[in-house]
Design goal:
Blueprint lengths: L1 H25 L3 E5 L5 H19 L3 E4 L4 H9 L5 E3 L2 H8 L5 E7 L4 E6 L14 E4 L5 H13 L9 E4 L3 H9 L5 E5 L9 H4 L2 E6 L7 E4 L5 H12 L6 H10 L3 E4 L6 H7 L10
Parallel strand pairs: 1-2, 1-3, 6-7, 6-8
Antiparallel strand pairs: 3-10, 4-10, 4-11, 5-8, 5-9
Helix pairs in contact: 2-8
Length: about 280
């Protein structure tokens, strides 16, 4: 009797084993790394609804994380710690120069960087900023510093020899510090001047230089992610809109109208014109 049912038991055992294996595989977390453009607490709070949407769509946990700073975040990406990332443009150039991450979605429309001074300042263009104090956003930010650095280099000016830079991180802080005469000029995202909350302050400022149009930060995936998973992730991201309070909050925080499908090719012209993946200034 045992000999007759043993094959059946063996088949049942193998079936259960395969089911358990597949279940375990389906429960492997998707590791989602978010560039630390805000405090870790603020980043996690903002991206948790996106992580939840991804969990529901994928049927697997999503492990959301960020880092204390851009350097640590980049190191983790290079180590393969993340399956999905949302990262700054200059970081993305550095990343794809070493690991073939693929952009799958990004916000729209594009944006610009700007150099601001007080309206009553004698400074009318960036060539007059030699020897001046500049407030920037972050060293790795193209809109908030790098375009200005590149334009100054074209004029033969470098820091700290020809001008000083202090990175304040928050755009509001840059605007207020320039208006308050703590710095001679500031480098910000141009759309930060549209803040109704700071209108009385921004009315005191003027723009003396702007960058080229800059694509929004990309959502990108690590090599080896299955095509069906890519499709599911892209569907969730491009489905974020203003029809829900959560969607509105996310888009407003990003200063975008919506999220569309993107590819690495969408960043090629920008990368070719203004960024070099081998630039040691990015490899910090």
């Amino acid at each position: 009797m045992l000999k007759k049912i043993s094959p059946l038991l063996l088949l049942l055992f193998l079936t259960l084993f395969l089911l358990c294996t597949n279940l375990h595989a389906s429960e492997e977390p998707l590791r989602f790394g978010v560039f630390p453009y805000k405090s870790p607490k603020a980043v996690i709070k903002l991206f948790l609804p996106i992580a939840k949407e991804l969990e529901d769509a994928l049927g697997r946990p999503v492990r959301l994380s960020t880092a204390a700073n851009a350097t640590l975040f980049n190191q983790r990406v290079m180590q393969g710690d993340y399956d999905l990332i949302w990262t700054c443009n200059s970081c993305f150039v550095q990343i794809i120069g070493k690991i073939n991450y693929q952009a799958i979605a990004c916000g729209y429309p594009s944006f610009q960087g700007a150099v601001i001074v007080r309206k009553d300042s004698s400074i009318k263009n960036i060539s007059e900023l030699k020897g001046k104090k500049i407030a920037g956003a972050r060293e790795e930010s193209y809109a908030g510093y790098q375009f200005f650095r590149n334009d100054m280099q074209d004029l033969g000016f470098t820091t700290p020899k020809d001008y000083s830079v202090k990175f304040l991180a928050k755009l509001d802080s840059i605007i207020l510090s320039v208006a308050g005469r703590q710095y001679d000029a500031g480098v910000i995202r141009l759309d930060a001047l549209e803040s109704s909350r700071l209108k009385q302050v921004t009315d005191q400022l003027t723009v003396i230089a702007t960058s080229m149009n800059i694509p929004q930060f990309p959502f990108a995936v690590k090599p080896g992610i299955p095509p069906n998973v890519l499709t599911q992730i892209s569907t969730v991201l491009t489905g974020i809109d203003t029809n829900t309070p959560i969607g509105s909050a996310i888009l407003n925080s990003f200063k975008i109208q919506g999220i569309r499908t993107c590819r690495n090719a969408d960043y090629e012209e920008f990368n070719r014109k203004v960024l070099d993946p081998t630039d040691q200034r990015l490899n910090n």
